Amino acid sequence: MFRLICRPKESVVSSLQDLPPTCFILVMDNSGCILVKQIGASQCTPMNRSLSSHNSYAKDELHLPKALPMLATSRSLPTHAGTGLQKVKNTVQFLNTKIQKQFQQVAPLESKGTSRRFTEREIERATDKFSPLMVIGHSSHSIVYRANLKDGQVAAVKVLKITNLSREELLQEVDILSGLNHEHIVHLLGYCYSKDMQAVVYNLLQGSLKQNLKCLRWKERMNVAVGVAKALRYLHRSCSPPIIHRDVKSSNILLSHHFRPQLSDFGTAMVYHQPQKSLATREQHHVVGTFGYMAPEYVMYGKVNEKTDVYSYGVVLLELITGKAAIQKNMEFKHGSLVLWARSLLSHGLSEQLIDPNLNEDYNNEEMQRMMTAAQLCLRDSSSRRPSITKIIKLLEEPQYWVKVRKEREECNDEFKSSREPRIQRCED
To answer: Where does the Protein kinase domain lie (predicted)?
Structure first.
């Protein structure tokens, strides 16, 4: 058996500098599928190996089965293996390029100071060997631990459950978060990327909105609503190209000591490229997100744009108003959906029944009405009729704008008593 010690920060190409041109290197996944095949290039001009001083990465060894002809050249392979080798060359070429691009995206981040790469041993030590007492959150695809870093900093470590998609999600999240800088978006401290562990390290906050919702006072709920909206405005308007989060929900909104929100979990976020038509076609068979928060056009057709996040944000507004989760098992809720339940009450003029009793009527009535209006607009079935997040912020922060919107909506309702569809565009906000 041939064992090659390959530091993950180095690309496959740079690792080939240790092999003569008479040898091959094969990189395989855990199932034995060949991902990369290259010929050694030790006679080539040496590449910059500045990362080689990181001896801690030496434990990430590539164990290759004896059954594979690791040291065989194409000349020494039997004739009947020629067809198979050519097939490997053809099928591996795309994966080779993809993996190298992924490493090239992540590897320079530490040198730029935007994030740090942690070893498995460092993560294990910081979480007290992944003690259950250090768990501060979990989901179907990850567990979040409190971590005491070596430099004394306290952080949160999200350890992904390794799947076929976890590597792509990790690289996506690290790549996106490393380029973001906003007070209402979590700060990336680093990551761990190896065969046996995939984790992201954030600044530690005081739990999620979902965990703390019922104990929040009205002023704090308003601050959360505005803060998350500003985070989305930053992603949609300040980032070029725009970034669509695709999983805005109460458990992905983290809170500080003073209940200042920070949007987290960018594992399913995507960079939004025009044209919309081609994007919708490309994404329609890979819908990600959380049931109860996903926009109808996204669920049915895979259509993605900034209005996808606006809809999910509208569900969060309902949670802030009602104190209830997006999906309920209570028989009071039709189909268990908070959205359907809220729409039913609003259509019958029973908006007061939406308000969380835990607030004990201690809230600003006008602010409550503004948030209800914002939620209704965000949750429109037609994405083209939902306002931008910029208009939602204006609605929440500017009472005069809310009065204008309310007046326009009342005029629309009166005008459309007999026929709504022919003039629907005139009721846009």
So the answer is: 130-403
> What is the longest distance spanned by two Cα atoms in the chain?
83
Q: Looking at residue 290, which CATH number applies to its domain? A: 1.10.510.10
Instruction: Write the CB contacts of 178 (distance below 8 Å, at least 6 apart in sequence).
Output: 109, 112, 114, 115, 188
Whether residues 153 and 257 share a domain: the answer is no
Does the pLDDT of residue 33 top 80, yes or no?
no
CATH code where residue 136 lies? 3.30.200.20
In 285-358, where does DSSP find H-type helix? Answer: 296-301, 306-322, 338-347
Rounded Cα distance between 403 and 390, Å, is 17
What is the pTM assigned to this prediction?
0.71
Residue 377 lies in a domain: yes
Indicate if 334 and 311 belong to the same structural domain. Answer: yes
The confidence band for 65, taking pLDDT boundaries of 50, 70 and 90, is very low
354 falls within a domain:
yes
pLDDT, tens digit, 9 for 90 and up, residues 247-280: 999 999 999 988 999 999 998 899 987 654 444 4
CB contact set of 217 (below 8 Å; sequence gap of 6+): 359, 362
Domain that holds residue 47: 3-106
Residues 168, 243: one domain? no
Q: Residue 243: what are its φ and ψ, rounded to 5°?
A: -115, 130
Rounded CA gap, 110 and 102, in Å? Answer: 15
User: What's the burial of 208, exposed, middle or buried (CB within 10 Å: 0-12/13-18/19+)?
Assistant: buried
Q: What is the pLDDT of residues 66-114, one digit of tens each?
A: 333 433 344 444 544 455 555 545 555 555 555 556 556 666 665 555 6
Catalytic residue among 175, 247, 309, 429: 247
Task: Return the minimum-mean-pLDDT range out of 54-68, 76-90, 286-300, 341-355.
Answer: 54-68
Q: Which of 88, 106, 124 is the last residue of a domain?
A: 106
Please state at what angle helix 365-378 crosses helix 389-397, rounded to 10 degrees: 170
Alpha-helical (H) ranges within 234-305 are 276-283, 296-301
The reported pLDDT for the residue numbered 407 is 82
Q: Flag whether 290 is in a domain.
A: yes
| Residues 240, 305 within the same domain | yes
Structural domains counted in the chain: 3
247 as an active site residue: the answer is yes
Q: Do 248 and 405 form a contact (C-beta atoms < 8 A)?
A: no
Of all residues in the chain, the percent with pLDDT exceeding 70 is 65
Q: What are the structure tokens assigned to 331, written together?
A: 């028989």
Let me know: does 319 contact 338? Beta carbons within 8 Å: yes
Q: What pLDDT, on a 0 to 100 scale, did the predictor assign at position 75?
A: 42
Structure tokens at 94: 């795309």
